[in-house]
Automatic annotation (TrEMBL), chain A:
It comes from Geodermatophilus africanus. The keyword Repressor does not apply. The keyword Manganese does not apply. It is a multi-pass membrane protein. The chain crosses the membrane at residues 16-34, 41-63, 69-88. It is found in: Membrane. Keywords: Membrane, Transmembrane, Transmembrane helix. InterPro entries: ABC/ECF_trnsptr_transmembrane. This is Biotin transport system permease protein. GO terms for cellular component: plasma membrane.
Automatic annotation (TrEMBL), chain B:
This is Biotin transport system ATP-binding protein. GO terms for molecular function: ATP binding; ATP hydrolysis activity; ATPase-coupled transmembrane transporter activity. Residues 22-245 form the ABC transporter domain. The keyword Hydrolase does not apply. The lineage of its organism: Bacteria, Bacillati, Actinomycetota, Actinomycetes, Geodermatophilales. One of its GO terms (cellular component) is ATP-binding cassette (ABC) transporter complex. It holds the Pfam family ABC_tran. It comes from Geodermatophilus africanus. The keyword Nucleotide-binding applies. Belongs to the ABC transporter superfamily. Keywords: ATP-binding, Nucleotide-binding, Transport.
Amino acid sequence: MTLALYVPVASPVHRLPAGVKLLCLAALAVLLFARPTPAVAGAALVGTLVVGLGAARLPVAVLARQAWALRWFLLVLFVVHALTADVVSGAHTVLRLLTLVLAAAVVTATTRVSEMVRVVELLGAPLRLVGGRPERVGLLFAMALRFVPVLIERADRIRAAQAARGGAPRGLRALRTTVAPLLVQLLQMAHDVSEALDARGADDVPVRRPGGA
Amino acid sequence: MRFRRSPAATADTDVAEPGRGIELRGVGHRYGDRVVLEGIDLQLTEPRVGVIGANGSGKSTFARLLNGLVLPTQGQVLVDGLDTRTQVRAVRRRVGFVFQDPDAQIVHPTVAEDVAYGLENQGVPPDERAARVAEALERYGLAGHADHPAHLLSGGQKQLLAIAGVLVMQPARVVFDEPTTLLDLVNARRVAELIAGLEQQVVVVTHHLDLLDGFDRVLVVDGGRVVEDAPPGPAVAAYRTLAERR
């Protein structure tokens, strides 16, 4: 599980502000759904590949992994559309979704999480008007990215421990027997993380510095 | 990240008295009816202090008292003259804390961003922050992993990252709570060497008794009390005797 996809390369795309990249991504999404033609979708896909592989110099594997992870979903989508509408419609839908996923992967691979966090903080700035702290929202965003793989790893460990003792439940029973111990572990971990945040000054309130990021 | 100053932060400007070290005056701690620590009077000024004891003896609570993660239900803990109860932020800036499980301490997805986290909280300007992060990554052998996802590091690298994240904040004292328990021999030795080379005062809670070689003072905690307070040799001998009686 790799949620942190950043690929460090010195490229003009990497140097673009995160906000600009996210705006472009949003604009692309609007375009793909406002102008739902195969020509637009095809051009967008080519453009995404040119930016990702050419301008940003990302390894092909980074984008290929994203597409491969979606293969079954895209296949089902294609089949459903082919059966309920027609094959062209199915291909077009798949093309649009694939383009968007690859474009999002280009943004993620060329943008550090800290830059994303700053955009989230910027968007959350109005929270200050009601006494909120946008930096907390940014921290939540970063922590979500950090702890999803940890959560998956812990769930895997629980399943491995159960298997080692002869238990190999499947389906809903597997979900039930994994969720309860996982919740217990996560509550303990949440307590540990809150202590770590305290110890590292999360509740500290330094002076706002001009130009400070 | 940008921060606002709140009225509560002004208490942190109190002047510390570094020569006083860590003082525990009549300290006790209870969780509900359960007494975890009691009757502790100590002054810790030595550069290297170890804390050993059986599981459940109160060691971890003792460690957490030293930077205000746990407040005493009885008595007073002072760090360089600053009270953990009333000046906790100032205390935490002076006392770094390294936890047993680095996974719980690493809060950002990538290595460099996590090391920078504490500096952001301290309001360190971006240029200085970047320089200090780079220096810390170099010093702790993580320079090639700056943009690496933290969850893909090995256990030893994660512990080094957790330590780098604390030491980059340049605390005057560092408390380690069982820093080598989850590590293999090679990584445990590496962390031990790192601790031995620190300029700061260090308090280490551990089950790895060889980690205490060269320490100035070792406390043996049992049943919530400090039952031995001596150099490593006699303290470890007392701890072994205690363990054999059980």
